[in-house]
DNA sequence: CGCTTCTTTCAGAATTTTGTGAACACTCAG
DNA sequence: CTGAGTGTTCACAAAATTCTGAAAGAAGCG
């Protein structure tokens, strides 16, 4: 038997399985706060062999309008998760997943921590640094500062590891 | 001058400053995906000296209905960010921020990584582990596995540091 | 028990978000 | 220039979300 349980050892893509993955993974991303269409486009790209698709292909596979593709693609481009490239000799754009998308997305996380830390310190100052609330907020700000540092180091370690793995190829 | 710029060195809370902080911080949390009312309640608790408030106080300071408080509080309780406690001798509940809320919230992040990794591995298997898409997804899953490990260690280091700081008191 | 005080639930109004269709804009090929 | 092939914008319809008031539900207190 070569059913879906034991994976795909054939050459051709099981489009139904792809669609299932795309929808499930997109749902996770949506739950985590990403816009629905952006999440679906992103997932579709992730599951594409080329790592890139045209707007038409996206509209087709996801059953959405060109307008929806446009919106999703704008979001993903602005947030630096995908790039747009033009196929030479044609008018068609391809939208391509950047390498290490997830790793760079996590870097952006870092910026969130910076902002939160800043606001907490301002808050602590406004409330009075020696009040109970002020103290609590300072401690929380310290945690965020710590996380920034650690996240940075973690990403460096990941880069090293990736570099090592690539050297083995 | 003792304006708001240079912090509050007086005893009494500058309620206007508190309100500003609450709204700003809540806005950040909302942008990061938290429900609006939950974010406001959470921020208000964070800025409260006692680290806890009654439903009535929350409704009052945030200008929202008891129903809204109820909803927000349910969400925060379910996600384990606050606890409910009854004031002895009264019928009033107090909602209290857990210690190290943020640190434990980050622990929950970890569960997200677990789920995402799992889905990616399933996806890679469904698409065929040796296809380009399958390979990409496996690599991404590896990143998430790595992040889980690192996040865990980071939180341990934070606990240690906290323990050390508390011992100094 | 019943009253009083709080909390929760629920239906609905208001708002916001989302996705579409259609018009518009851009770009290259001839 | 013109026209075909693509991408984007915008107004609107549909759907989801959010918050409220009102009513119902607990839980202590006399």
From TrEMBL, chains A, B:
SUPFAM superfamilies in alphabetical order: Winged helix' DNA-binding domain
Highest taxon listed in the record's lineage: Bacteria
A GO term, aspect molecular function: DNA binding
One Pfam short name: MarR_2
Annotated organism of origin: Streptomyces mashuensis
InterPro entries listed in its UniProt record: HTH-GbsR_regulator (IPR052362), HTH_MarR-typ (IPR000835), WH-like_DNA-bd_sf (IPR036388), WH_DNA-bd_sf (IPR036390)
Keyword tags: DNA-binding, Transcription, Transcription regulation
Domain HTH marR-type span(s) in chain numbering: 33-92
Taxonomic lineage from the root: Bacteria, Bacillati, Actinomycetota, Actinomycetes, Kitasatosporales
Protein name: MarR family transcriptional regulator
């Amino acid at each position: 038997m070569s059913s879906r349980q034991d994976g795909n050892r054939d050459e051709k893509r099981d489009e139904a399985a792809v669609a299932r993955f795309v929808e499930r993974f997109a749902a996770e991303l949506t739950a985590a706060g990403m816009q629905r269409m952006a999440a679906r486009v992103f997932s579709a790209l992730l599951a594409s062999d080329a790592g890139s698709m045209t707007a038409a292909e996206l509209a087709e596979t996801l059953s959405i309008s060109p307008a929806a593709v446009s919106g999703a693609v704008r979001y993903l481009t602005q947030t630096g998760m995908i790039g747009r490239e033009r196929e030479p000799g044609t008018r068609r754009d391809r939208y391509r997943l950047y390498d290490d998308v997830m790793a760079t997305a996590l870097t952006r996380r870092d910026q969130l921590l910076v902002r939160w830390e800043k606001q907490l310190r301002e808050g602590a100052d406004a409330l009075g640094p020696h009040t109970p609330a002020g103290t609590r907020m300072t401690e929380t700000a310290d945690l965020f500062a710590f996380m920034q540092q650690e996240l940075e180091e973690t990403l460096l370690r990941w880069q090293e590891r990736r570099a090592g793995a690539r050297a083995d190829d």
